[in-house]
Every structure is written in C-alpha cells, then in structure tokens.
Amino acid sequence: MDYRRYSRLTIAFHIWGVLKFFFFAFLYLFIFNREADWIGYGRIIAAILLILSIIFVIFKWLTTTYKIDEVAFYLSEGFFTKHKRTIPFSKIQNVSRHTTFLHKLIGKTSLKFETGMSGDGGTIKFEVVSKEEADHLEDWVEKSSRKVNVSAHEEEKVEEYIEDRKLHFAASKKDILKASMTSLSFLLLIPALVSLFFMINDFINVEKEAEGAIHFILSAWWLTTLVVIFLIVASTIFGMIKTYIKYGNYRIYSDDDRIYISRGVLDEVRFSISKEKVQAVEITQTLMKRILRIAEVKLTSAGQTGGGDSSMETSSLFPFLPQKDAFRLISEILPDYEVAEEMHKLPKNALFARLLKPSWIWIIATALLYYFQPNVFNLHIPWWLLSLILLILIVLLRVLDYYNSRYVLNGRFIQLKTGSLATALFLTRRDKVIEIEMNRGPLEKILGIAKITTINRAQPVRHTHMYGVPESFRLAFYQWYKKRGSEIELKQ
Questions:
Q1: Which of 221, 247, 273 is at the close of a domain?
Q2: Which residue among 396, 410, 478, 490 is least enclosed by CB atoms within 10 Å?
C-alpha cells in the first residue's frame, strides 16, 4: 500500500479546535471592548495568528502521510525535513476510540493505537475515520499481530477468528447514582456559576446588579431558604446529569486476549488493552467509597493507558464498582490473577516505628506557625494549639494506615494493601515484577521490621511500598523473587 493522507475532515476538526481557542479572545477584541486605544492592534495580531494557525493546520495535513502493511504502520511527517517512524503491530498494547458529539453529527469517530513508548513517538491517531474503517483497522492490526506470534500452520485459524466477547459488567442506574454522589460532581455547579459570573463581569460590569440581588435574597429568611433548597436540588440534578453523560452506557467486555471498555452518552469512549500487557491490578477506595461499599479497579499497563488523555480514564475498569463485584471481575477478566481474601496484619512493632518516625510536615508547619502566628478566622487560637491539632491528625493517620495495612505471598502472587482514610490493594505476579528493593535503618533493625518495594513496568515505572513487614517476611520475599528467573526461562 502506498503512502496516503488522513481524511480531509481532519482539517475541519483541527480548524474547529483553533476557533475554540480564539473564541473568547475575539469576543473581547471585537464585541465587548471596542473603545480601547490599542484594540486595533490587538485585532490585527489576533487575525494574523488565526490565519497562521489555519495555514499550519493545512500544511500539517498535506505533509503527514501513513501506510499499512502486514506487520506495521509507517508514518511520514514534516515539510522541509521528513521524519519517518515505524510502529510494528506487535508493539501495540492499547487501542482506544473517542467519539465526540461532533463526530456523531457526521457519523465518524477517532481511533488511537498506543505502544509502551513514551511521548507521541509510540502513538498513531486517526482524528476522523468512519466507524466501518475503524473496525477494519482494529481487526487488521489484531489479526496481523496474531500471525506474528503463531506458526505457519496456525495462520488459517487466525483468518477464521470470530470475535467472541463476554459481557462482565454493565452500569445500572443505581451505579450511576452512587457514582454521582461519590465523585462529588454535584459540588461543581456553584464553582461553575461563580466562574461564569466573573467571566461575564470581565466583559460586562454586572457586579452592582449581583450585589443588589444578593441583598434582596438575604433580606428575607424564607427567600434565602428557598434559594438554598433550589441550589441543593439543582446541584444534585447537575451532578447526576454530568455523571450520566460521562459514565452512561458503561460496559466491560473481554475475550481470550483483550479487555474492552466502552462508556459515554454524548462523547463515546471505547478502549481495549491486551491482557498480556497488564502488569498489576489495584483496588482503591476513598473514604466515601468505603462508606458506600464501592471500589475502583485499576489496571497497571506496560503502555500508556489513554495516551495522557485524562478524560478517558482508560486504566480503570470502572471507578464506582460495587465492592462485591470487584474481586469477581478480576477473576473473570484476568483468570491468570488470583486474589487472596485472607491477608496478614503488620506486627505491633510496625506501629511503634511509625509513631517514632519524625514528621517533617509537622516540624515545618510548627516553625511557620511560631513565626507567623496566624489569626485563623479571627478566633485567636494560639499557635501551639494549632500545632498540637496537626500532630494529633498526623498520628491518627499513621495509626489508621497501620491498621489498614495488609500483606501476603500467594504462590506466584504478592498482594499489598496500604492507606489510612483511602486504601489501595495492589496485586501483581512475580514474572511482572522487574525489580525489588528491601530497606532497613537502625530503628527497623532493632524492631525486626523492614520496608519492601516492588517495581513494575508502567508509564511511569510503578513503585509499590510496604513499610513495617516482619523480618521473616523480608527473607521470604527475597526467596520468592529469586524464583522469577526460572519462570522467565520457562516462558522463553
């Protein structure tokens, strides 16, 4: 196949992004601020920058091409100097789709293939592509990468491969409701209104009118009560709608090789990750999630999950899973991973060591409080009392972290749980751990405890710590990891 350009609609999408970037600048320069002496120069500069940006978009489209064969993507870009990249299918770890509302209007989607390389060098993205072509590209890459890993007599089986995905989880209305409460998205309405007010006030002076309205509302208790009730109801509805738009239609599927996640109502996101590339599993719970008995299951991948796009959150199976479904999902989706329900508590010496370790946050805060002696809310609280309150909070968090911490070696798996108000349970396989660390200071030697660390491939590299394990476990941990060599040799 010869080199070809991306869809012409890519130009329109990039120009739309440029127009959105310049939108508020043009409102300010051409509508709301027409009397300033410098406004003419500002308009000329803004118009020149807009034209240059559009020209850049067009030239980038003209000078960026790609081609595909049986084994790789080949990318070529640059006008005066050409840069060429080759991305083998075998290196592709994650595949994601993002269908915005604008994509839906024209019946298109965007498609991204990601490798374990950092930066844009390991990513190929089709900004605008038909859903049929996206399906074709995904199937082509998957079948071609399978052929690389099988012998010649098995190629016929790959050609006859029929996608067979099992549905593991579908978010219900109850799950969405819990998600809206846990994410605290209902609290975003008031900051959004305040931000909108200041934005409008920059163009039109409405501050005096706002002060009059606030004075009128506060003049009668019943009117103030009605406004407060209205804001609470409106914020709750706003949070539920926002959460439903983002997490509605949430589905988790899997087949023998990959995990598939889809979500979204207006903007649809689809993502898949190779099971082979999963380095570890993490189950996290904030304080609110622990109260509501829900959890988030995250996958640590050797590649970039989501390519840095925070809106996709593709490393998470679902941020608001019912707690009873979390372990079930892991065993169903990743049968090679085993979750141990029984874990060991830390020895009491670990609590003693935690309490003896100095807190630099408390020391620095105490010094600042002594120097500045702030008057908090005009309550005239002495600085030493604030320091004492901070110390009590730090001690309380350390005690909670001790009681929540757990550890266990389960065959070829290691499982570590840490956290005070929020907790995180980390599970990984021995062959996925690329390095371990064990540390003991003088205090730890006296108390017979140690700090252990596992290191896994990820972007960035994942370090997981457990402080206060007994000396016997430190030795068992070392012997456990030594067996990794024989496992790697067997795989080769």
A1: 247
A2: 490
Nearest to 96 by CA among 303, 245, 337: 303
Query: Which residues make beta-bridge pairs with 426?
Result: 282, 416
Give the number of domains in the chain. 2
Q: Tokens at residue 378, please?
A: 């005009």
User: Domain check: are 348 and 491 in the same one?
Assistant: yes
* Placement of tokens 């500045």 in the chain: 372
pLDDT one-digit tens code per residue, 64-97: 999 888 888 888 888 777 888 888 887 787 888 8
DSSP character string of 429-485: EGGGEEEEEEE--HHHHHHTEEEEEEEE--SS-EEEEEEEEEHHHHHHHHHHHHTHH
Ordered strands of the 108-114 beta sheet: 123-130, 108-114, 94-99, 268-274, 258-263, 251-254, 166-170
Q: For residue 130, give both structure tokens.
A: 């038909």
Whether 236 and 381 map to the same domain: the answer is no
CATH classification at residue 364? 2.30.29
Euclidean distance between CA atoms 206 and 227, whole angstroms: 20
C-alpha span between 307 and 312 (Å, rounded): 9
Would 484 be classed as within a structural domain? yes
- Specify the 3-state DSSP secondary structure of 149: coil
Instruction: Name the 3-class secondary structure at 100.
Output: coil
pLDDT at 313 over 50: no
| Separation of alpha carbons 386 and 392, rounded Å | 10
Indicate the average pLDDT of the chain. Answer: 81
Judge whether 466 and 416 are in contact, CB under 8 Å: yes
Mean pLDDT (whole number) for 273-299: 87
Backbone angles phi, psi at 74, to 5 degrees: -125, 120
